[in-house]
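Duplicate of #3305? Posting structure anyway:
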């Protein structure tokens, strides 16, 4: 019981990752029809209700599976560099990379050859906006069940996140945040890539950092990551972390209600925007499980403007 309590009071790996896209329809098509994820929530950007906020994940939108997008129409292409999260790693089943390579060829998805890193085989590819992703056969068995579609069956489906990669000019200040505040530990190093892990959970528990002192900063736009969210059990633990982070001298937001979780945001020393997000209340708070993502859900402050917002948003087919 003591060990369980300790685990619940710490960071539980990755909660979600949020990225930027350009064309909403193209983004929706790629992640649901090519990659085979479930659209678990269709809502709008809290600060820009004329822009969708898509949440893609497993059946329930479980923490550690949720990739979200702001599809800002016409924003143009960004590029990766230092001071940002650069590559997203999904866990897939053993022997599934051949299926994915063939599928990417079928849909003209930009991909690389299968490679190996930290003893794990992986296939790198890019989404239509140039966002970098990896499908990884993880060293430790991943028993999570992915969302199944007609074309992407459960035995090859993505299971959720394995890791996120941060690219930084200097890894040391960020590593200190990971170890001293978020409870990660350095697992191993290959060249200029450092792998950090938390044993509080079995999956979605890896953060890789690349040290690239001579690389220019990236530009946040379509095809780049906006922020990385780490998972906590509930908003009581969230506020404990707020005190801890503030005591280290970091500027951190008040608790923000994002309808499906509560959040805090702060920017770590390397420039990456970090979020802490809760498990509660989850995506079934306003839609039953079997209907997730089927209708447009608006934050309550925008409900009175639903007609105008629906007329502004691109129509998805």
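Output from current build:
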């Amino acid at each position: 019981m003591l060990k369980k309590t300790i685990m619940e009071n710490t960071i539980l790996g990755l909660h979600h990752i949020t990225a930027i896209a350009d064309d909403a329809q193209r983004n929706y098509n790629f992640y649901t029809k090519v990659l085979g994820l479930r659209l678990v929530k269709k809502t709008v950007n809290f600060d820009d209700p004329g822009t969708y906020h898509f949440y893609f994940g497993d059946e329930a939108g479980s923490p550690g599976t949720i990739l979200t997008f702001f599809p800002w129409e016409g924003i143009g292409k960004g590029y990766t560099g230092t001071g940002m999260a650069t590559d997203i790693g999904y866990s897939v089943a053993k022997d599934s990379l051949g299926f994915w390579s063939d599928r990417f060829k079928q849909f003209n998805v930009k991909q690389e050859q299968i490679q190996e890193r930290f003893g794990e085989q992986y296939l790198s590819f890019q989404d239509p906006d140039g966002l970098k992703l990896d499908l990884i056969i993880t060293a430790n068995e991943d028993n999570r069940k992915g969302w199944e579609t007609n074309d992407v069956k459960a035995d090859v489906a993505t299971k959720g996140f394995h890791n996120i990669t941060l690219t930084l000019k200097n890894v040391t200040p960020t590593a200190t945040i990971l170890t001293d505040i978020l409870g990660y530990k350095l697992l191993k190093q290959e060249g200029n890539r450092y792998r950090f892990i938390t044993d509080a959970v079995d999956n979605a528990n890896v953060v890789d950092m690349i040290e690239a002192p001579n690389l220019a900063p990236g530009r946040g736009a379509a095809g780049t990551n906006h922020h990385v969210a780490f998972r906590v059990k509930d908003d009581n633990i969230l506020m404990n972390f707020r005190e801890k982070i503030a005591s280290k001298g970091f500027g951190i937001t008040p608790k923000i209600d994002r309808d499906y979780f509560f959040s805090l945001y702060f920017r770590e020393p390397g420039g990456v925007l970090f979020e802490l997000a809760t498990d509660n209340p989850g995506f079934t708070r306003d839609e039953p499980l079997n209907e997730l993502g089927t209708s447009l859900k608006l934050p309550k402050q925008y409900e009175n403007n639903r007609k105008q917002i629906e007329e502004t948003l691109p129509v998805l087919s």
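Confirmed duplicate; merging threads. The domain at 2-312 is CATH 3.10.180.10 (2,3-Dihydroxybiphenyl 1,2-Dioxygenase; domain 1). The radius of gyration is 19 Å.
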